Amino acid sequence: MTDAPILRLTSRALDGLPHGFLGRTGGVSTGMFASLNVGLGSSDDKQAVCENRRRAVEAVAPGAQLVTLHQVHSNRAVVADAWADDARPEADALVTNRPGLLLGILTADCGPVLLADGQAGVIGAAHAGWKGALTGVLEAAIAAMESLGAQRERISAAIGPCIGRRSYEVDEAFLRRFAESSEEAEHFFSSGQRDGHYQFDLEGFIALRLSQSGVRDIEALGIDTYSQSDRFFSYRRTTHADEPDYGRQISLIALPG
Question: Which domain holds residue 48?
Answer without folding.
Answer: 8-164+201-254
